[in-house]
Amino acid sequence: MVNATPPTTPWTFEGPLATLWSIDESATLVEGQTFCLSGRNGDLSDAHAGGLFVFDTRILSQWVLTVEGATLEPLGVDRPDPFHAVFVTRTPPPAGQADSGLLVLRTRHVGNGMRESIVVRNVGMQSAAVRICLEAGTDFANLFEVKEGRVRSRPAFPDGDSPNLLCLRRDDPSSVHVTAVRFDQEATVEGPRITWDVRVAPRSEWRVCIEVTAMVNGTGPTLRFPCGHVDDVTGPVARLSRWRAAAPVVDSDWPQLDAAVRRGIDDLGSLRIFDASRRRPVIAAGAPWFMALFGRDSLLTAWMSLPIDRELAIGVAETLAAFQGHAVDPTTEEEPGRILHEVRLTEASDLSLHRGNAYYGSVDATPLFVMLVGELARWGCDHETIGSLLPHVDAALDWIDHYGDRDSDGYVEYRRATDDGLANQGWKDSWDAVRTADGRLADPPIALCEVQGYVYAAFRARAELAALGGDTAGAAHWTRRADRLRTRFNEDFWLPERGWYALGLDADHRPIDALTSNMGHCLWTGIVDPGHAAAVAEHLLSPAMFSGWGVRTLATTMDAYNPVSYHNGSVWPHDSAIAAAGLMRYGHVDSAHRLIEGLIDASAAHAGRLPELFSGLDRSEVGIPVRYPTSCNPQAWASAAPLLVLRSLLRFDPEVNHGRLWLAPTLPASMAELHARGIAVADHEVSIHVTGERVEIEGSTGLEIATRPRPS
């Protein structure tokens, strides 16, 4: 095995990680580009990689509440909304007693800062004199420093003296950072500590409302949830309510599926980013580490989320089109027509990979962009929007031909243009993700198998868009290109002696022969020769690949397999959902059902929420899906995975551009009923009711209903 030293860029950091709370010990709140990661009693401690972050900067690293000098005991956390939690705690009981006389409720809302309401309730029979102390601290560290445990010692210091205000300030050579903590009950402020001395009568309570905001050089975002305002009319509450109301309602005799869909919908709603300069929202990749727009993540998430809301997919496509590459810039890897890897839509743009506004080092975002525009047309997006995106589609296809295919061999490959860039630029973008069966790192430029599948699907999408516009010659041209690519791919990537597709081709056009989950994406896009599909299905569900919870990124039989690695043996829910969709596409229904059942069982083990990834340890060995230390939770494409599962079970494929809707539900043996109400297609909503072999459709779309799977 060849070992290599990993790059030191933030996105590929492989050193020791900061200490995280376990999932069972933590609580995460998210609203737009604000998130808070705390313990279950509501405290924030710089001993853990948590805190309150606004635009990727930690504005609170310490937030510890004590009552009578004691740390509060957590009793439970209620999270009615992604940005709202109630921490129910109590003071420790006196020595020799089982019960405490003081309950403490901390109600927290995040959004451009934080509002916290603290209620101390005396449930005892005697009046209580109570000292309540809140200690605040911040370091203004960026999220990469926090994640990697390399925060420099640079605490902010108290500034000013007021009975209703604590300011924590740090002066840098070019900026002044301030976290302001305001409270509506006067207190004693000494250094970073706020103290209230109060008397609480029996069966009475004392409360205070606190606002936390941040400023750089005197300016900062407006707090979403200020004290004294009615929350049900604020932006986040109204937006989430509209999102939930518009989303399909799923009701089945498999409650774990219903819960996963509901949780996914809520999490997707919380990860949306609303930028004042754009008409429609986009979506952040995930909390806590990637609260920014990522090309690949947003495109796949938008594609999977179309049954909820077409507006999100349009917003993603339009925003990525606005940032599409125009020039050749090796420092950012920008190239004409290229779709970006990552952009920060905030003033904190210095936190992007190249300390600039955008970084373009992605090999797959560009064909995925074309795929999404084609899918939008199939779902009935208006002609004006599709027409406005077509020049960007053609620019993306030009990139595929002139920059993506670096050696003119007909395949799209990547090699980073700068040592600061990502060494691997597919979805498995960690530095060590692309290896041969015996563990050697592949030499770039590398042509990944799934990327050729995306390009194939992009060519097919462009052919359909041409036909939609009456361009029969263009439709024929792109169809021929797709067919040629499919033929060559199956000649060059198929390994007959192995019975699977190569992960990719290396610099010498030699197959990278590792057995990986990437070929599940090839099923999804339709580039797989039907004669090879059964072998692919068999491998994906083999003991080496299927953990019982999902498909491993790398088979256990490969030398580089590590079940607790980022991309060399872990399980990614979106990856497994895509594989299941591909299995359904090729008619391997039983295999798809096994994979879907494992994935939904994994969601149930996480209270309905699928994390970004989890360990590849086998279910027969460990009866829970074991967490990965720095997994985002929630994460966008993991949250969208249950929606793709739902679509796969329904085999629901609109083709509004051809006047039809393909629908052929197939349920696992453990299910008898599935009802999906309010799926938006074009300007209509349909509801689908499956009971055994019986299928009913409510709602008129004006489309021909084809009660069979869409042909590949």
Please provide a written account of the structure.
With 712 residues, the protein is of the alpha+beta class. The protein folds into two domains: 228 residues, Beta-galactosidase, Chain A, domain 5; 445 residues, Glycosyltransferase (Alpha/alpha barrel). Helices cover 28% and strands 24% of the residues. The chain is built from 14 helices and 34 strands. Strands 7-8-9-10-17-14-13-12 form an eight-stranded antiparallel beta sheet, with no helix packed on it. Strands 6-5-11-16-15 form a five-stranded antiparallel beta sheet, with no helix packed on it. Helix 8 runs parallel beside helix 10 and helix 12 runs parallel beside helix 14. The two termini are 39 Å apart. The N terminus is likely disordered.
Top keywords for this entry?
712 residues; alpha+beta; Beta-galactosidase, Chain A, domain 5; Glycosyltransferase; 28% helix
Mean pLDDT: 90
| Sheet with most strands | 8 strands, antiparallel
CA distance, first residue to last residue: 39 Å
Helix content: 25-40%
